[in-house]
Specification:
This protein is an alpha/beta fold. It has three domains: about 5-85, Archaeosine Trna-guanine Transglycosylase, Chain: A, domain 4; about 130-250, Rossmann fold (3-Layer(aba) Sandwich), CATH 3.40.50; about 260-485. Helix content is about 30%, strand content about 20%. It has helices spanning about 100-105, 140-150, 175-190, 210-215, 235-250, 280-295, 310-315, 320-340, 350-355, 360-365, 400-410, 440-445, 460-475, 480-485, and strands at about 5, 15, 25, 35, 45, 55-60, 60-65, 75, 80-85, 115-120, 125, 130-135, 160-165, 195-200, 225-230, 255-260, 265-270, 295-300, 375-380, 390-395, 415-420, 430-435, 450. It has a seven-stranded parallel β-sheet with strand order 19-20-18-17-21-22-23, with helices on both faces. It has a four-stranded antiparallel β-sheet with strand order 1-2-5-8, with no helix packed on it. The chain has a four-stranded parallel β-sheet with strand order 13-12-14-15, with helices on both faces. Strand 6 (about 55-60) and strand 7 form a beta hairpin. Helix 2 (about 140-150) packs across helix 5. The longest helix is centred in the middle third of the chain and has 20 residues, at about 320-340.
Length: about 500
């Protein structure tokens, strides 16, 4: 195995695949020998030529910032000697490769295949048959948890389990903040992974069940039931009775062959490291491309982690209208930061930096590789459900729980979550953890479902794309992920407004 990786021929840094000690040497492809001037951790960068002060540091073939001082060949390049080039709200120009976009669009939906899913009455397809309890307000969270614990005693047939998705909102919110809560809740109530849903209200909250009904829209009364706790003499008895009815209604559902074009995957990363952008994220990008070739849909979010790589996505937009939507999404998010008096580029996180990511450009150029190579077909607002096949961009923050919940709300039946540091969380839909390195995959085998770190040990992207895609199809057909086996289910709503 090589000890380093030069991602692009124009890069003036390479990534160390293992720790380099001071005085150790690496040999570049052109035969040039580089001596490490200091100890350099695995996943971090070493300069392969002298870089003068204020000159750009190049990785992935793009600038990831500029040198704060003269950097000599063989030196460790990280937060102590790089500063971001990013600024505030920008103007952009649409510069697409129209031939490439046209070629890619012609390849969408050309593959054929199936998985075994649950076809709902509205023709939406789920990959799980769970019974969900959706509280309208945080005040009934404990009741929701207690009901789920009690109702799981009665699970039968094809029902996987009863899950309570608790949250802190639904009241004391104003304006768009309250609207977003209602939209997310209604999206989850309508999610096809839920074979049945109990909507649990308190009664006096802003987003009470009566208010929520127009957001929910048409529903099957055998599969969606409602309970207002303040109107019930015994909410535990009434709730348990309703959940028994819902379990009975869903227990007879059966998996059937479904075209892979019905699969919607969410793309997310968290706890990234210096390997994320060279193993796990580009592997997931190939999976996104593969899903699209089957006629399916992928959704990329984490808008702040597009900053610095946004022009790559913009120039892949299918047309100028989609480009303008992407520009608005990026600049509106920057405006959101500035209105809160916060710096736009407060990123990467301490864990990212420890893993070898230096600037937001560095992080974003790795992060956006999850989107693959296909054109951007659609841009969605937070809480919007996708109705467009192909690659979608979704407005949501980088926070893992908020972004993953937004992906589920947008219609993803499964989230592919890449990580270099590891995380146990799961969102409302199956959350597949894909490690960027074998070290974390082995250490946290109870969290990690698949290791892209095998690429660092000589496996090819083609091999791992086939293996990971097969695992995704098996997961969609019922195979449980590590977080599901552990019983982890999380949900988080993006809080943006005033709390009364």
């Amino acid at each position: 195995m090589s000890r380093f990786l030069q991602i692009h021929p124009e890069d003036n840094v390479v990534v160390c695949l293992e720790e380099l000690k001071k005085g150790e040497k690496i040999t570049l492809g052109d035969g040039k020998e580089i001596t490490a001037n200091e100890d350099i951790p695995a996943g971090h960068k070493i300069a392969i030529k002298d870089i003068s002060k204020d000159s750009n540091i190049i990785k992935y073939g793009y600038a990831i910032g500029h040198a704060l001082e003269d950097i000599t060949e063989g030196r460790w390049v990280h937060t102590h000697d790089i500063k971001t080039n990013l600024e505030g709200i920008l103007s952009y120009k649409y510069e697409p490769n129209t031939d490439d976009i046209g070629k890619k669009k012609s390849q969408m939906g050309t593959r054929k295949g199936t998985f075994k899913g649950f076809v709902r009455k509205n023709k939406k397809v789920g990959i799980r048959n769970e019974v969900w309890i959706i509280p309208t307000v945080g005040c009934v969270n404990n009741i929701a948890r207690a009901l789920a614990k009690e109702a799981n005693k009665f699970v039968k047939g094809s029902v996987d389990e009863v899950v309570a998705f608790t949250h802190n909102y639904g009241c004391s919110q104003t304006g768009d903040d309250q609207e977003h809560t209602r939209t997310i809740l209604s999206d989850l109530i309508n999610h096809p992974n839920a074979g049945a849903v109990l909507v649990l209200g308190l009664g006096c909250e802003n987003s009470n069940i009566d208010v929520l009904m127009p957001y929910i829209g048409e529903y099957d009364p055998d599969r969606v039931k409602f309970l207002v706790c303040q109107k019930s003499d015994d909410e535990m008895a009434d709730g348990t009775a309703l959940l028994k009815e819902l379990i009975d209604a869903a227990a007879g559902d059966e998996r059937e062959d479904v075209d892979l074009s019905k699969l919607v995957i969410g793309l997310k990363c968290g706890g990234s490291d210096g390997f994320s952008g060279i193993t796990a994220n580009p592997l997931v990008g190939r999976i996104s491309d593969r899903i699209i070739e089957y006629g399916g849909t992928s959704i990329l979010t984490e808008v702040p982690e597009m900053f610095g790589a946004e022009t790559i996505l913009m120039n892949r937009c299918k047309d100028e209208a989609t480009f303008n939507d992407t520009v608005n999404m990026i600049n509106d998010f920057k405006d959101y930061f500035t209105k809160q008096g916060e710096p736009i580029y407060e990123n990467p996180s301490p864990g990212n930096k420890a893993g070898g990511i230096t600037t937001l450009e560095d992080k974003s150029l790795g992060c956006t590789q999850k989107s693959g190579d296909y054109p951007v077909m659609n841009v969605m607002e937070y809480g919007q459900r996708t109705d467009t096949t192909g690659l979608n961009l979704l407005c949501a923050p980088g926070n893992d729980l908020c972004a993953a919940t937004a992906l589920a709300s947008a219609g993803a039946q499964i989230v592919l979550f890449t990580t270099g540091r590891g995380t146990p969380f799961a969102c409302p839909v199956p959350t597949m953890k894909i490690a960027s390195n074998n070290t974390i995959a082995k250490k946290k085998g109870n969290w990690i479902d698949f290791s892209a770190g095998q690429i660092l040990e000589g496996r090819t992207f083609d091999e791992l794309t086939d293996e990971l895609f097969d695992k995704i199809v098996r997961t969609a057909s019922g195979e449980k992920l590590k977080s599901e086996i552990a019983g982890f289910h999380d949900m988080a709503i993006w809080k943006r407004g005033v709390t009364l």
